[in-house]
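Table S7 (text form). Paired inputs.
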Amino acid sequence: MKLEIRVVRSIARRKGVVILRSELAGLGSPAQLSRVLSNLVKTKRLVRVGVGIYVKTRLNKFTHELAPAATFEEIAAEVFRKLEINIAHGKLARDYNAGKTTQVPMLAVVDTGRRRITRRISLGTRIVIYERSGEYQRNGNKQ
């Protein structure tokens, strides 16, 4: 069976929309896997949102084109969950949720606590911006 068929089957069986390259590493050699993933991105069956991070696509019922299968915020949350990185809402989102402001935050800002993260996660023109407050420990509890 061709590697591309095995990769497509493996992706289809997964529940979430985010696929990490490390999850597919056992299916073939790194060079073969790179070729297959690159081909899937070219045919728009996957969208690359970061280094080794891909997102499933589905048919948009309005434009009849393939688009990411989830919103940008859902994709970012699933990426951090799969990478086991504890995050919290950024300061602006926390203020809005607490009712301190009526300004709706438009940027995807996440608080990483004390952890320093440089991983770029982007979809189109949207990117995740990191904020370090130092208020959160690894388990997400306040000190």
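Next pair, protein 2 of 2.
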Amino acid sequence: MIEVLQLTKHHRNTTAVDDVTFAVRPGRVTGFLGPNGAGKSSTLRMILGLDSPSSGTALIDGMRYRELRHPLRTVGALLDDAGPVPERRAIDHLRWIAQSNRLPGRRVAEVLEVVGLAHATRRRVRKYSLGMRQRLGIAAALLGDPEILILDEPVNGLDPEGIRWIRTFLRDYAAAGRTVLLSSHLMTETADTVDDVVVIDRGRIVTQGPLVEVTAGHRSLEEAFFALTADRRGSER
């Protein structure tokens, strides 16, 4: 389980994340949704211990990320701004991660098969398409066979087949009792994947809850989002 409690992050004269609180529960896919610049990536970085909050805290199974004894066995993560060395072969990239985290070497071949890259393991990453690099990032997140997945814009660069694959994979992952948190600004696509949604705009939570409740009275999640943010922005004027 992931718990975000009154998380706030200030950058000089701006507030990227403002008093954000939500929970991500096992057995469900939770979408963390909002436009670009809304505070999604900043929140994920604080959950993963890459940035320190100005106030508040983020807990993974009751502990901060840095307190986890075996981080990659607990949490697998894909961040939008992270990537392998372009000249490195895909298989070597995953071997390095596995060895440095004392993960079994057999997992490299296993995850490459899962993400559909078994045919291109020895190709240099610079020769990968954007979609292939995205699949490689997901493979790296899966190396530790974690109970929790945190994915930032996971469908970025994927073709329709890849989008269908990741949707099915994440739903099956959650159905096995695991926890999935994915961020996206593509609400129409994400609505086909998630059980719960947390919507953020300008660093603040706009709404959160089961997808069916958030979209009640609206034709789509996208329509619900624009209605909610329009009301909020109107009240701030």
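Residues 1-61+186-237 form a domain with the Rossmann fold fold (CATH 3.40.50.300).
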